[in-house]
Amino acid sequence: MAILIIDQVIKIEVKTTMTLHECIRVTDWFHILFIENNGMAWGMSIMPKIMLSLFRFVAIFVIAWYISRQIMRGARTVYVVLLSMLLAGAAGNLIDCMFYGLTFSNSTPYSVSCLVPFGTGYAPFLEGRVVDMFYFPLIVTHYPDWFPFWGGQQFIFFSPVFNFADASISVSVIAMLLFCRKELRNLSFK
Question: Of 60, 31, 26, 14, nearest to 135 (Cα)?
Answer without folding.
Answer: 31
